[in-house]
Amino acid sequence: MNTFRMTVACGLIAMLPSIFSAVAQETNAPNQNETKEQRDARMKWWREAKFGMFIHWGVYSVPAGKYKDTDNHGEWIMCTAKIPMAEYKDYTKRFNPVKFNAEAWVKIAKAAGQKYIVITSKHHDGFAMFQSKTSDYNIYDATPFKRDPLKELAAACEKEGIKLGFYYSQAQDWGHVGGAASRGHWDPAQDGDFDAYLDKVAVPQVKEILTNYGQFPAVLWFDTPATMTPERAAKFFPLLKTRPDLIINNRLGGGFKGDTETPEQFIPANGFPGRDWETCMTLNGHWGYCQSDTNWKSADDLIRKLAEVASKGGNYLLNVGPTSEGEIPAPCVEILKKVGDWMKVNSESIYGTTGGPFSYLSWGRASRKDHKLFLHVHQWPANGVLRVPLANKVSNAALLVSPGKKLETKTEGNLVLISVPATAPDAVDSVITLDFEGDPVVPTPPALNKSAKASSCQKGAKPEHALDGNASTAWQGEKGTTNGWLEVDLGKPTQINFMSFEEPGRDKDKRGQKYELQYRDGEKWTTVVKGSSGGHGDAKTFPVVTAQVFRLEIKSAKDRPGVSEMQLFGPE
Ligand code: FHN
Q1: Which of 390, 387, 345 is nearest to 372 (CA)?
Q2: Counting atoms of ligand 1 from 1, which one is nearest the CA of 123?
């Protein structure tokens, strides 16, 4: 065997342990051998719950976003203000949340219609919000409070029938030697061995939060897998396997998929077909309490987001950032109560539903339970007729608020026309139930699997990857290009009044693409709509245009132009 071949052989042999190790890691991961039935049973309560409360609470609520002459920080304040470890730890002396009332918090969540809570047991600053024997840098030992809020929350959740999950920052830890920092350490006191940190702090603390809180946690929400490898992730597997019913997200790292996808601050255009997913969002612009951030989302916006998430088969984890006194900010309580008022009337259209069959509806969203559709009407038809692009036989239609009062329906081609009252029962989201027979027959999106061209294509990509209905394939321009275009031929002149597109990679990639949608108008291109994406695509509605060839022109992109899925739709 010649030298080259010998070298290659030795190289492969040398790699074998890590290959076997990675495979071994994955095969040792929890739930590797569970059947579909076992998985469905384990995920059942979570899939039915649909709506949860995220709580980001920690010692960062003491500075509340301010540090010296800077403001607008959140739970990252120690990093974004580069606060030295010793100085940051001084905040613990002032952390005494005497107004904390677990029962009150759980009742706020229940009143909103939230069925589970996920609270930060330890965030990136390394401060444990529970009594930890592993490190005295915790709320019980390091503050005047001398209580374990997770224990009190666990008792309140048990009493009120709410599930409780724990968020844990397994890699980033700016308060313990060796803990990772995705933006690098800023205090030499943080420097140390990461594997030693995992063994001495993270793994023992995960054991504590998995064993000291009775039936909880029902969910373990790992976050930011900085520097995690399959071997490092595998350190947690034996612990995770001690809780066979535990639901684990996809952020442990080392390639561990976990049970749920976790889009953050956005709702994916098509959800994640075949995967459980949960989008988490803030109520203002910060996860942790930031006193100056009063930019609260409206209840109307949140109700429509909840309907959109349900229509795509996902869960909605909506965050609150309590104060250092232990209170959920009053505006959050008011907004959540309004969402709860809507849920009191319409929760049947959310709890236990799956995604609806429509890729697009001009007037709203649709969730589903077997042969019943819940039509979430955001734009009430002025002419009293709701047009539903469903070619199935329908047996009944009614307002959810008055189920006994049948609405008249008739079929027109592939449309179901529902006669509705002149006034919408709910200005934000009125729900109509529609019972149908058979499997849903809905329009094929006009651009799906159509032929496409592009200005350039990176090796291995094709323009058609943006039109194949699969968000994990994407068209991307050649490396080094910062603009380009993707052209689709619909095969015939088609009425279009809505466009959406998703971008490859996590929203962290922040491609920030400025784009124009154009249609071929004789020899020229006419622009229909312009916009820019924030890293996870965009969607636009516009006056109806009839054309056969459309082009998405990316005028500028921070990275090469890229689209993982583009959809064009016309009016029903
Ligand atoms: O860095 C964290 C952030 O502080 C927050 O906890 C969010 C919530 O999902 N997760 C990480 C950012 O992706």
Answers
A1: 390
A2: 6
Listed by start position, the domains of the chain span: 45-349, 356-436, 451-569
Ligand 1: residue whose CA is nearest its atom 5? 287
CA of 399 to the centre of ligand 1 (A): 39
* Burial (0-12, 13-18, 19+ Cβ within 10 Å), 534: middle
CA 221 to ligand 1: nearest atom: 9
Q: How many residues does the chain have?
A: 572
Q: Is the CB of 180 under 6 A from ligand 1?
A: no
Q: Is the CB of 264 under 6 A from ligand 1?
A: yes
> Which residue is associated with the tokens 């006034």?
423
What is the distance in A from the centroid of ligand 1 to the CA of 223? 7
Take atom 12 of ligand 1 and give the residue whose Cα is closest.
224
Which residues contact residue 348 at a Cβ distance below 8 angstroms, ignoring those fewer than 6 apart? 374, 400
The pTM of the full predicted model, rounded to 2 decimals, is 0.91
Atom of ligand 1 nearest to the CA of 120: 6
Is the CB–ligand 1 distance for residue 57 below 6 Å?
no
Mutation test of ligand 1: which of 119, 224, 284, 509 has the most ligand atoms closer than 8 Å to its C-beta? 224
Q: Indicate if ligand 1 lies below 6 Å from the C-beta of 287.
A: yes
Alpha carbon distance 162, 109 (integer Å): 9
- CATH architecture group of domain 356-436: Sandwich (2.60)
Record: fold of 451-569? Jelly Rolls (2.60.120)
Q: 45-349 — its CATH code?
A: 3.20.20.80
What is the residue with the minimal CA distance to atom 1 of ligand 1? 224
Please state, in angstroms and as integers, the Cα–Cα distance from residue 75 to each residue in 120, 125, 547, following that order.
Answer: 11, 8, 49
Atom in ligand 1 nearest the alpha carbon of residue 287: 5
Of 364, 366, 392, 368, nearest in space to 378 by CA: 364
Ligand 1 nearest atom to the CA of residue 262, by list position: 9
Predicted confidence pLDDT, tens digits, the chain (572 residues): 454 455 445 555 555 555 555 555 556 889 888 999 999 999 999 999 999 999 999 999 999 999 999 999 999 999 999 999 999 999 999 999 999 999 999 999 999 999 999 999 999 999 999 999 999 999 999 999 999 999 999 999 999 999 999 999 999 999 999 999 999 999 999 999 999 999 999 999 999 999 999 999 999 999 999 999 999 999 999 999 999 999 999 999 999 999 999 999 988 877 888 899 999 999 999 999 999 999 999 999 999 999 999 999 999 999 999 999 999 999 999 999 999 999 999 999 999 999 999 988 989 999 999 999 999 999 999 999 999 999 999 999 999 999 999 999 999 989 999 999 999 999 999 999 999 999 999 999 999 999 999 999 999 889 999 999 887 789 999 988 999 999 999 999 999 999 999 888 655 556 679 999 999 999 999 999 999 887 778 889 999 999 999 999 999 887 789 998 899 999 88
Report yes or no: 399 and 409 within 8 Å, Cβ to Cβ. Answer: no
Ligand 1 atom nearest residue 508's Cα: 13
Angstrom distance (rounded) from CA 139 to CA 372: 48
